[in-house]
Design brief:
By secondary structure, the chain is α/β, with parallel strands linked by helices.
Amino acid sequence: MTAEEPPADGPGIVAIVGSTGTGKTELSLGLAEAIRRRGGEAEIVNADAMQLYRGMDIGTAKLPPSEWRGIPHHLFDVLDVTDEATVAWYQPEARRIVDGIRGRGATPILVGGSGLYVSSVVFDFRFPGTDPAVRARLEAELAAVGPGMLYRRLREVDPESARRIGSTNGRRIVRALEVAEITGEPVSGALPDEPQPWRPLTLIGLAAPREQLVRRLDERVERMWRDGLLDEVERLRTLGLERGVTASRAIGYAQALGELRGELGRAEAIAQTQQLTRRYARRQVSWFKRYPGIHWLDYDRADLVAAALDRL
């Protein structure tokens, strides 16, 4: 069976999405247990780009295997910090796993806040290819002049992608410019206004009032430092974190590296991480609001698992 050949009558995909800090992990576990109580089976598939990395635990709020409650988990801790995480790699791998779960008669629960990663699995669209020469030229320009000039160019050719990516993520800016150059189309067009599900799909989004979410996110960042993020990053440095194209730029990890190198003070590193996390959460909400047919649920409702189960 290939990723393009759906298993007959397998359960549909359940995708739990929303901004960081809304409790997606806890809901995925509760929902999987509820499906089991109804006589079914469920397995969880990661759709958080940073939780793909081994050793990146505290800064990603990754659940340790000891707390998986006997539920199979997939695509956690599958990359080294020196590897580059790309949607082009993730999509076929995740789809292969999803169809394997469906083929076993179980429900795949895709959970995470990386919008493009979620979309690559649940919607029927394909990513443009790459051109090594164009990519190398743009990366050389990024190294020479930084992301600012490239970002201004991206705003002219693909303002929607520029808004989503932001002005500091050089790697994603380069990719968006590469797509625009080799296809003549903006990368934002990869997700059409009315995307079609790749497999039968239930979308559940967790929503939180902005003021509550900001407080939760700020407290979460402070807790990361208390729980030993600096020690975790110091260990990852010995494994090549600073050479990692993706991992070294992760929110929180980049700031912890800055503190360890003496470029940022503790308070500055925490404040910068909080600011970037809040900005990232806004982008996540904007992304997931585009999803047709999504069931939005309040993150703190007492009957959250039952309400999610009712949507299946």
